[in-house]
Amino acid sequence: MKKRVILPLSFGIILSGISSVHAGDFTLFAAGVDPNDPTSYYNADQMQTPTCWAAAGSNVVAHWQDHHVDSVPAGTPTGTDVYSSFLSLYSAPAGGNSDKFYQWWLGYYSTESFDGTLKDDWQSLNVGGYYKDVYTYEEAMDMAWSHYTGNSDYSARYASRAIYYALLNGYSFAIGIPGIRHAFTVYGASFDPVTELVTSLYLCDSGYVVFSKDKMHRARINLTGNKLYLAGFYTEENDFAGYNTHRQLDNLYFLGNTETDTMNFVWNGEAIPEPSAFGLIAGLGALALVGMRRRRRPQ
Q: Which of 37, 85, 112, 285 has fewest C-beta within 10 Å?
């Protein structure tokens, strides 16, 4: 088995991602993300070409490389170059899913499987497949995957748990919206600790016609039946651009938070803890540290 290079997040990073939103809810953000600081997250400008899934996917890849990869292989594009390197393959707009972009980046998905027109010399560009010598095929597929929100009686809870688990471990992800064939990048979410459901998402739209391209927006999430739906913005000054926000959340596209671990948590995980529980854990840890230091003092 080839060696993984994902760094475990420190307990401090997990705690720093939790903040109170309004009565009852709490919020998690991906590692290093501050919704008020555009320099702390990626928001690729896709220039209104139909590559929203790749723009969202490149945001996730760039964030993953910055915060979860110990050593990026030589020659691997980083930051905003992730998206531009993908666009270099095409002579016409492409379509597809963000998990395919992840798999292509890691090295285990054929570029020919994407829709769109590839340049005749795309193979000579030597792009994609940057982690073939780092991860096995099985590891890559377990790291780059999608979760369909589904239509079961528990679909809203399952989707919320998957989102919670990803953000708790510091990962951003992409989300697909059916009907308009569009994808967003998600960097944070608020949860109701009683119902364990998502109440809002912090989204980037990568320069499409829905959200302003230059910043992150917080979108309301409502429960309708057993499904989660986008239900508008928290601030009224945003331009809706004629967009019907009442759309069901569709596939969630994850990178790094492995399908095996995430789905085990989704099906079998304990209840989502309230922020007070994290505060108690942090307090106990601090007390233990003080006790250790006292015991180590010379008499």
A: 112
